[in-house]
Amino acid sequence: MNGARVIGLARSGSHRFSKEPCERLTLIAGYGVADDAHAGATVQHVSRKKKDPHQPNLRQVHLIHSELLDEVAAKGFAIASGELGENLTTRGIDLLALPTDARLRIGDVVVRVTGLRNPCWQIDAFRPGLLAEMIEKRADGSILRKCGVMAVVESGGEIAQGAAIEVELPPAPHRPLDLV
C-alpha cells in the first residue's frame, strides 16, 4: 500500500447526500470531522439516531477509494469527490480489504476503521442506476458492498489533500469488515 494518498476532502454542515469539497479538514478525536453533520460522540445518522440516539458513533468519518469512482466512470457515471457523501477520497489503498480496527495514519491524524458503509436508496436518487454498481454479488453468493468504509477518529489534527496514508493492521486474527 505504498503511495496511498488522500486525493479529496469534503464536509457538509447539514444532513444531505453530497458533501462540499474543501482543501483541508480538521478531525477531532472521539468526535469526527469539524463542521460536518455526522460528527459527534453518539450516532448522528438520521435514521439510526431515531432508533437509539445514545449508541456510539461508529460513522464519524466516511472514506471512499477513488478507484471505485474510476470504475463507475467507465460505466458512464461521472462522480466527483464528496458526491457520495464521503469525507476522504483515497487512492492507492484497498479500503474494502482492510480488517476491522485497522488504523489509518494521515500525518498526526489516526482514524480506526469500524466497518462498511451500506449502500442505500439515496444513491439511486442521486444518479439512477448507480446503486447497482455499488453492490456486487460474488461467485460464492456473498455480497460485496463497495461504497467505502466508516471510521472513528482516535487522534485528531488537520488533513490536507495529497497527504500520505499509512496502514497499521490490528493484531491477528483479523476480523473482516461488516456493516456499521
Q: What does it look like?
A:
The protein has 180 residues and is mainly beta. It has a single domain, classed as M1 Pyruvate Kinase, Domain 3 (Beta Barrel), CATH 2.40.33.20. 11% of the residues lie in helices and 32% in strands. It has three helices and 13 strands; from the N terminus they run E-E-E-E-H-E-H-E-E-E-H-E-E-E-E-E. The chain has an eight-stranded mixed beta sheet with strand order 2-1-6-5-11-8-7-13. A three-stranded antiparallel beta sheet has the order 4-3-12, with no helix packed on it. A two-stranded antiparallel ribbon has the order 9-10. A hairpin with a 5-residue loop joins strand 9 and strand 10. The longest helix has 8 residues. It is globular. The protein starts with a strand and ends in a 12-residue tail after the last strand. 37% of the residues are buried. The mean pLDDT is 95.
**pLDDT averaged residue by residue:** 95
- What is the name of the CATH superfamily? PK beta-barrel domain-like
* Neighbour order of strands in the largest sheet: 2-1-6-5-11-8-7-13
**Largest pleated sheet:** 8 strands, mixed
Structural class of the helix and strand makeup? mainly beta
Number of domains: 1
- How many DSSP E strands? 13
Structure annotation, total helices: 3
Helix content: 10-25%
Outline type: globular
Strand content: 25-35%
Query: From the alpha-carbon coordinates, what is the Rg to the nearest angstrom?
Result: 15 Å
Output the CATH topology. Answer: M1 Pyruvate Kinase, Domain 3
Uncertain stretches of 5 or more adjacent residues: none
CATH classification class:
Mainly Beta
Would you identify the CATH architecture? Beta Barrel
What's the end-to-end separation, in Å?
Answer: 24 Å
| Secondary-structure element order, N to C | EEEEHEHEEEHEEEEE
Organism: Tsuneonella deserti
Protein name: MOSC domain-containing protein
InterPro entries: MoCF_Sase_C, MOSC_domain, Pyrv_Knase-like_insert_dom_sf
Domain MOSC: 20-168
